[in-house]
Amino acid sequence: MPKTTIDLVDPELRPTMESLPAFKIGTETLAEVRAGVLDFVPPTADYERDDVKMESRTIPGLEGGPDIGINIFTPIGGDDLKPAMLHIHGGGYIVGTADLGNVGNTRTASEVGCVVVSVDYQLSPEVTAPTAVKECYTALKWLHENADELGVDRCRIAIGGESAGGGLTANLALYARDCGEIDICFQLLIYPMLDDRTVTCSDGNPHVGEFGWTRDANAFGWTSLLGQSPGEEEVPPYSVAARATDLSNLPPAYMYVGSLDLFLEEDVEYAMRMLKAGVPVELHVLAGAYHGFEMAPEARVSIKAEQESRDALKRVFEQ
């Protein structure tokens, strides 16, 4: 038996984990943490490719709200209509920017051959749910309505994101299903942040949540998004996917989560509930991986997770 949780961490992931600065996120430190996260936005030279065109635009936002920023990654070449994915960045609902996904989105556009549109939704606590998911839906509608200009096949539009972006992806799938305007062909859920009730759970796996995204950070993220304490009886609509009572008629899903990730149990449970509702789901639990483990990009588990998720996206688009 391991003496500490660190003994369970994949050895190739430990150096990156140990090099990350400790942080405590809260009202007083939020601005500082947000500024620190921007340090992880890569320079253009780190991700630009000759076969992918990147551009940034703004589109009309919600009524009374600001315009929404989007980054568009388009594979160059070919006359056929291309599939597309709406990407939603992570950050606990409280930090982050679409630019954080530039490296991965460029690779996805190049290797999968799809257009990627990444959305800069508003963060909490400045806005509360369901503002962010409605902004993501606005971006999805824009993608669908402008498919001809973008060279996109409207029948092959997927959605995906990591962490809070994965949570927004799950909520967006529910919201789009209920609106009945756009058919989504696939949802890519990367260690999604799905259940505010995890904050109040004291009898879960003792080995999760020590690294990457902690219980304290989770509590602050959910409180900021919901505008109330996590775990209350009622929550805003389309804010907590795990609380949805009907998971039927959702698009097929691919999900992975690390065995040391705070979201392990809520993710596995959500995947099982989708399966029971008749939704095709492929779920991977990655041994020794903590939340955000891809910050060690050279680790074999990071390479494998990224490649297999892109392969899953490609398979759906080729059907």
TrEMBL record:
Domain of life: Bacteria
Keywords assigned: Hydrolase
Gene Ontology MF term list: hydrolase activity
Protein source organism: Acaryochloris marina (strain MBIC 11017)
Protein name (Swiss-Prot/TrEMBL): Alpha/beta hydrolase fold domain protein, putative
SUPFAM superfamilies: alpha/beta-Hydrolases
InterPro entries assigned to the protein according to its UniProt record, in alphabetical order: AB_hydrolase_3, AB_hydrolase_fold, GDXG_lipolytic_enzyme
Domain Alpha/beta hydrolase fold-3, residue spans: 85-294
